[in-house]
Specification:
Keywords: 4Fe-4S, Iron, Iron-sulfur, Metal-binding, S-adenosyl-L-methionine, Transferase. The protein is an alpha/beta fold. It is 37% helix and 21% strand. It folds into three domains: 114 residues, Rossmann fold (3-Layer(aba) Sandwich); 240 residues, pyruvate-formate lyase- activating enzyme; 35 residues, no CATH class. The chain has 13 helices and 18 strands. The strands form five sheets. A five-stranded parallel β-sheet has the order 2-1-3-4-5, sandwiched between helices. It has a four-stranded mixed β-sheet with strand order 7-6-8-11. A four-stranded antiparallel β-sheet has the order 17-16-15-18, with no helix packed on it.
Length: 407
């Protein structure tokens, strides 16, 4: 049985897609391209109107690539509008929620032998392995429909997360990325209240501290995208004390540097709060690396409001900015607004911000010149530093190792 995985969208999707691949390998499958696959799993995205178009195009391409394949469509776009996909080929398209994918694969391919799914480690998988600890979102940003597709926030039990991470560390994984749709909302009932993300990370550090090869450091953890309001002083302190075992890198979505625009986006902070948080982070970890997401041309955004965003981005000294020209997503409040920004204005602002982002990234790398970091060897000749820069690897370094590099 040949299979293919087509992944679209966020890091959470990537982790889920690796899990689907593991399950198909455990069923005796061989991973191939969509043109020769008996079963194709398409993990969809619907975060913007453009993402929705790309998703539908991807499913059509998979259906054309091999007229005899079964196509399992899952993910956010399938949750929002399943009929859009089943109508493409009702006999071949199988819609599945994330929790139902295994059931559909059992029906199409057969069950997993002995009920064991192998770890997504080794050839064909990333050396930085993602572990999903949370799903769903209780926020309702006016440009976003993911909270509708994913539902209310839910947290995976700490013991399950710890068990998976310990198993990965024993398999030799040196960097584990904690992921979630709204990662910082992870919660678990504790004796004296609620444990939060810092408590989970503290436990993970302790449980994996002694699992490593001689001469290699223990595995490190990376926090994927986390909302500004979820970065507590306890989390900042733990990161600072961990001496790099929690990567001193955060992806902290800004979206806009103007407080009026943030209110209209229904973001739960203003520009002043965000900048104050960044200052606290840099005070605790001077060489912290910060990346972010910014939307250009949100409805009603003026030139001055956009300039406020550019200026705040410069003060925050981001090492990477993911720039998104605003894209209408039907079903969201922002898409209904009459004051949409012209496409050429959105594009021009995005171009300007990308130029600013490139300059900031180059400056941050220059500021780090001569410093030493641990870097994860991801492929021959290339490694990823703690601060999320790609660098050449030292001679003889093995894929999957953590090695010391000088920037």
């Amino acid at each position: 049985m040949n299979f293919a995985i087509v992944n679209l969208g966020c890091k959470v999707n990537r982790v889920e897609s690796d899990s689907f691949a593991s399950g198909l390998l455990a069923r005796g499958g061989v991973e191939t391209g969509p043109d020769s696959a008996d079963v194709v799993v398409v993990n969809t995205c619907t975060v913007t109107g453009e993402a929705e178009k790309k998703t539908r195009k991807a499913v059509r391409q998979v259906l054309r690539a091999n007229p005899s394949s079964d196509v399992v469509v899952t993910g956010c776009a399938a949750a929002i509008d399943a009929d859009a996909f089943t109508s493409m080929d009702p006999a071949r398209v199988h819609i599945a929620g994330k929790a139902q994918v295994d059931d559909v694969l059992d029906r199409l391919v057969g069950p997993i032998g002995h009920g064991v799914v192998p770890l997504a480690v080794g050839e064909g998988f990333r050396t930085r392995v993602g572990v999903k600890v949370q799903d769903g979102c209780n926020n309702a940003c006016t440009y976003c429909i993911v909270h509708v597709a994913r539902g209310r926030a839910s947290s995976r039990p700490a013991q399950a997360v710890v068990s998976e991470c310990v198993a990965l560390a024993r398999e030799g994984v040196r960097e584990i990325v904690l992921t979630g749709i709204n990662l910082g909302s992870w919660r678990e009932q504790a004796e004296n209240g609620w444990d939060r993300l810092d408590a989970l990370l503290d436990c993970l550090l302790a449980e994996t501290a002694d699992i490593h090869e001689a001469g290699q450091p223990p595995c490190r953890f990376r926090i994927s995208s986390i909302e500004p309001r979820d970065v507590s002083d306890d989390l900042i302190g733990l990161m600072a004390r961990s001496e790099g075992r929690i990567c001193r890198h955060l992806h902290l979505p800004l979206q806009s540097g103007n407080s009026k625009v943030l209110r209209e986006m229904h973001r739960p902070y203003d520009a002043e709060y965000f900048e104050g948080l960044v200052e606290r982070l840099y005070a605790a970890m001077p060489m912290l690396s910060l990346s972010t997401d910014i939307i250009c041309g949100f409805p009603g955004e003026t030139d001055q409001e956009f300039n406020d965003t550019v200026e705040l981005a410069q003060r925050c000294r981001f090492t990477k900015i993911h720039v998104f020209p605003y894209s209408k997503r039907q079903g969201t409040p922002a898409a209904e607004r009459a004051d949409q920004i012209e496409p050429e204005v959105r594009s021009a602002r995005a171009k300007q911000l990308r130029e600013v982002a490139d300059a900031l990234r180059a400056q941050q790398l220059s500021d780090r010149a001569g410093t030493t970091e641990l870097a994860l060897v991801e492929e021959a000749g290339q490694a990823m530093t703690e601060s999320y820069y790609e660098v050449p690897t030292p001679q003889g370094a093995r894929i999957g190792q953590l090695v010391s590099v000088t920037l």
